[in-house]
Write a structure and sequence with these properties.
alpha+beta, 4-stranded mixed beta sheet, 3-stranded antiparallel beta sheet, 3 helices, 10 strands, about 45% strand, globular
Amino acid sequence: MTKTNRLPEITDRKTVAKSRLFAIEQIDLTFSNGEQREYERMQGAGRGAVMVVPITEKGELLLVREYCAGTHSYELGFPKGLIDPGETGAEAANRELQEEIGFAAKSLTHLHDVALAPAFFNASMQIFVAKQLTPSVLPGDEPEPLEVVPWPIDNYSELLQQPDFKEARSIAALMLVRDKEGVHDR
């Protein structure tokens, strides 16, 4: 039997730091048992984000290797980006594909939504599978060209061994696609 907890009451909130992308908010909470705590949480742009798993007709995944400021390294992962104002998740996914790998998708399927560190961050990401890819390029905001890396989907376990394929969102997307597509490692 599971107990349903009641959400704590927010008794005070204030912004303690802010950048052009994020704000850190301090919240004072009172829990249903009377316990009081002070939490900090990061508030994102509130626009949401997308990640796209492009699959070619040959059964290859198209990944990108790009610079990541958080780790100050180049990481391998799937195309991703923020949803622009007025865009749906699917529209943002197709735009990001064209900006990052030079393809548009005739078929986009919403796969799953994931939360990013929900204990202290309010961001979420919609994951899409893209198929029926056709060449189409849109200018993006990347500071340098991204390296597009094709990878056979049925060799996903070797991808998991790559030292630069370690982003949790990309790994989750890979596992979701593997299950959805019924892929077995060779």
